[in-house]
Amino acid sequence: xxxxxxxxxxxxxxxxxxxxxxxxxxxxxxxxxxxxxxxxxxxxxxxxxxxxxxxxxxxxxxxxxxxxxxxxxxxxxxxxxxxxxxxxxxxxxxxxxxxxxxxxxxxxxxxxxxxxxxxxxxxxxxxxxxxxxxxxxxxxxxxxxx
Length: 146
Fold this sequence. Notes:
lyase; TIM Barrel; De-COase2_pyr-phos_BS; alpha/beta; De-COase2_N
């Protein structure tokens, strides 16, 4: 018999963690990164708590939709804006998009007309052991040019 992974999630802990984060950051807009765990029970629980969601793929959008989450509660934030994925997000009701490059912004403008956009800015941390800035976000001066 082939072994399969087994995952156990304490949904009460998920709820408690969301509430603690909201209490610590009452003015912040908090989005759950669906890639962390796209399981339907987790998504339904967070949706019931009024959460919003960060999605980065067609599969993540579809998982949210299957869990009964309206597209208006999703923000599409993939660093690579494939036209088909942007179009699928828009057709699914997503109206918030995050971009990192001028090309990403252009893809949103073309395939998601009238959408709300947010620019992800990569702060400079030259002493960082793990410089993620090269993958996520753009330099502040590049953001101003968009």
